[in-house]
Design brief:
Elements lengths: L1 H4 L2 H33 L4 H15 L3 H11 L9 H27 L2 H9 L4 H31 L14 H7 L4 H30 L4
């Protein structure tokens, strides 16, 4: 227990950093993912093409490479932001591709007649998507979106290699202080369990309340 009791502040900062990365990157991923899902089912060919390219590129790019591109590449073009902001951009954009596919699969479960009925009433594509299709699709995509955000929380560990304060990065300081690497990683794992189990519990509540009964 010494490694934990003697380093509350260090573990606390790391856990807080991981929570902040997870929350802000999740919000970005959800917003971008829903937008890209809308693009992928849009009647405009250029929007569908953009959405397809976005998903294809990000889903097939290693996350570590994306971190290098964002954290080390963007500053070369004059974009100077804190490293944690760059990490949120990398995590959020990467995860948005998976959110997009989850939402698109939910959209495809909504009967075509729903959209046709909305259009026959004079609704635009955006109105049909936002008021008719997405509310119904939401009920079916709760579990896959929850799993994707849990993966995002674990992927945030990569940020520690780029000078971003987060939970996994605390092992470097603990190792320098001479603490057992096994116990250091054990308490780091407990921290990640707290974050991921919290997300899981939240989505279990959402699924019980709004999910599709099976």
């Amino acid at each position: 227990m010494d490694v934990l009791t003697h380093n509350w502040s260090l573990y606390g900062k790391g856990l807080l950093g991981t929570v902040e990365l997870t929350v802000f990157a999740s919000l970005l991923a959800l917003v971008l993912g829903v937008i890209m899902a809308g693009f992928r089912v849009a009647p405009v060919g250029s929007l569908r093409a953009f959405g397809t390219v976005w998903v294809t590129v990000l889903r097939n790019t290693p996350l570590t490479l994306l971190f290098f591109a964002v954290l080390l590449g963007l500053p070369r073009f004059g974009l100077a932001l804190p490293f944690n902001v760059f990490a949120i951009l990398a995590l959020g954009c990467y995860t948005s591709a998976f959110i997009c596919e989850a939402v698109r699969s939910g959209i495809n479960t909504v009967p075509v007649g729903q959209g046709e009925a909305a259009r026959s009433l004079g609704m635009t594509f955006g109105q049909t998507l936002g008021t008719v299709v997405l509310p119904q699709a939401f009920r079916t995509v709760i579990p896959p979106v929850g799993s994707t955000l849990i993966a995002l929380a674990k992927n945030s560990a990569i940020a520690g290699s780029f000078s971003v304060v987060e939970l996994l990065g605390t092992y470097k300081t603990l190792n320098e202080l001479g603490y057992s690497i096994i116990w250091s990683f054990l308490w780091i794992a407990v921290g990640y369990l707290i974050v991921t189990l919290t997300i899981s519990a939240l989505f279990n509540v959402l699924e019980k309340r709004w999910g599709v009964a099976r």
